[in-house]
Write a structure and sequence with these properties.
16 helices; 3 domains; Aconitase, domain 3; binds 3-isopropylmalic acid; IPMI_cat; 5-stranded parallel sheet; binds iron/sulfur cluster
Length: about 500
């Protein structure tokens, strides 16, 4: 690389000017740079392959291959470009959709909430003005940004992928370096197709052996967060390895990587393999010369002898279906356990946070998880609203009825997931069981749209955050797998899905 980056101040954002470097990088062909003197991890290869400029002790300028945009974190970024008289540097590497604010009821009706309507209209107008591909609400390809990227084959191994959204880690399931960025960084990427980043350390989370019946990818990741806590991944990029991870489908792998951020990690990734290539084959936006792309992707997995800054090993046989009992995803335990009591923790701070969480959740501690009664069930979100999730939930719900005391909804992650589910008759299974069948969007994952819990309502949710008020003010969230959620909807309380038939 020649020269050093210049910085241009513009409306409070400092752009690293990368003009010549980006072109050099393109010409060199980044994958050919993956041969190095020492064995490298998947993360190190991805990082090295995207360095535009690095200086000791300073942030590195990384080239970004794919930028995903949604309505919540993009308005000020586009406004910044407009004020600075700039264009989007690589519109063809940028795609947008509306997901957080969209109502999941009848799409032909107007959006009643004025703020939601304004955000969605603003995104549509910005995309038009800046030449960015926008999947609008009438497009079957609209959906949660982390569901539609992989579904259309935009997400590919070896890429750097960013989005103004913390669950961008989902895309790491393909062996990509994918992470969330803030709105000022969204502007930076729009303007330059690069990003300034400090290099994270590497953490290997290895899960050996095989999980038992009824134990899902969601249970694996909730278990891991329970083990390392919501700060266990801070400062790290996680690589998930081991037999139990390799055995997962692509959609399951996305569920695992999705929640990396809930462990505090910068990103989470899984090395690509035949499962990855098979999933991508034939999707709309994969490289035209697919075999040549696969040949490059095969060089990505960590080299024999490569070392991580830290490695932790777990046994899949110890993982049972998980349920969160508290107000962060690390406050989680196995379905056959009891809600913990503050006194069970040795650390005084943890005793206090447990007491506060229990109070918010309306629990005393000591109750069996299977005795907890539910008011609502939400099957959806970028963690668990892909077709395999819906199939798994439908298989549990089939032939049963949702308990009279429960209101349950299924929200597909995208229009295409919805269509596929309808072709398979899953919508009928859900509707006959008494579930509400909705249009695609983030929905009750975060209550930025009409789908919300009422104060005090208790919900079994397949989403990824159980923070106070996350699903509506005063709402109480228990995170579970789609199978556990469907069984809870039928029973009216949590049940151990391993005993379901
Ligand atoms: C609205 C968005 C910025 C936010 C995120 O970054 O994750 C949301 O998707 C979430 O899940 O809380
Ligand atoms: S589904 Fe939930 S976690 Fe995923 S992007 Fe939407 S709000 Fe965030």
């Amino acid at each position: 690389m020649q020269g050093s980056p210049r910085c241009i101040a513009a409306v409070g954002t400092v752009y690293a000017s990368t003009g010549p470097f980006v072109e050099v990088l393109k010409l060199e062909g980044r994958f050919d740079m993956s041969e190095a003197a020492h064995p490298r991890t998947l993360f190190e290869k991805l990082w090295d392959n995207h360095v535009v400029h690095a200086e000791e002790g300073r942030q590195t300028i990384l080239y970004i291959d794919l930028h995903l945009v949604h309505e919540v974190t993009s308005p000020q970024a586009f406004e910044g470009l407009r004020l600075a008289g700039r264009q989007v540097r690589r519109p063809e590497l940028t795609i947008a959709t509306a997901d957080h604010n969209v109502p999941t009821s009848d799409r032909s009706l107007p959006i009643l909430d004025p703020i939601s309507k304004q955000q969605i209209d603003t995104l549509s107008n910005n995309c038009k003005e800046f030449g960015v591909k926008y999947y609008d609400l009438n497009d079957v390809r609209q959906g949660i940004v982390h569901v539609i990227g992989p579904e259309m084959g935009y997400t590919q191994p070896g890429m750097t992928i960013v989005c103004g959204d913390s669950h961008t880690s989902t895309h790491g399931a393909f062996g990509a370096l994918a992470f969330g960025i803030g709105t000022s960084e969204v502007e930076h990427v729009l303007a330059t197709q690069t990003l300034l980043q400090y290099k994270p350390k590497t953490l290997e989370l290895r899960v050996d052996g095989q999980v038992g019946r009824g134990v899902t990818a969601k249970d694996i990741v909730l278990y891991l967060i329970g083990q390392i806590s919501t700060s266990g991944g801070t400062g790290y990029c996680v690589e998930y390895t081991g037999e139990a991870i390799r055995a997962l489908t692509m959609e399951n792998r996305m569920t695992v990587c999705n929640m990396s951020i809930e462990a505090g990690a910068r990103a989470g990734m899984i090395a690509p393999d035949e499962v990855t290539y098979e999933y991508l084959k034939g999707r709309e936006f994969v490289p035209a010369d697919f075999d040549a792309a696969v040949a490059k992707w095969r060089k990505l997995p960590s080299d024999e002898g490569a070392t991580y800054d830290k490695s932790l090993v777990y046994d899949a046989a110890n993982i049972a279906p998980q349920i969160t009992w508290g107000t962060n995803p690390g406050q989680v335990t196995s379905v056959d356990k009891k809600v913990p009591m503050p006194a069970e923790f040795s650390d005084e701070t943890e005793q206090k946070t447990t007491a506060l969480a229990l109070e918010y959740m309306g629990l005393n501690g000591g109750e069996s998880l299977t005795d907890i009664k539910l008011d609502r069930v939400f099957i959806g979100s970028c963690t668990n609203a892909r077709i395999e999730d819906l199939r798994a939930a439908a298989a549990v719900a089939k032939g049963h009825k949702v308990a009279g005391s429960v209101s349950a909804m299924v929200v597909p992650g995208s229009g295409q997931v919805k269509k596929q589910a309808e072709e398979e008759g899953l919508d009928q299974v859900f509707k006959e069981a008494g579930f509400d069948w909705r249009e695609a969007g983030c929905s009750m994952c975060l209550a930025m749209n009409p789908d919300k819990l009422d104060p005090g309502e208790r919900c079994a949710s397949t989403s990824n955050r159980n923070f106070e008020g996350r699903q509506g003010k005063g709402g109480r969230t228990h995170l579970v797998s789609p199978e556990m959620a469907a069984a809870a909807a039928v029973a009216g309380h949590f049940v151990d899905v391993r005993e379901w038939n």
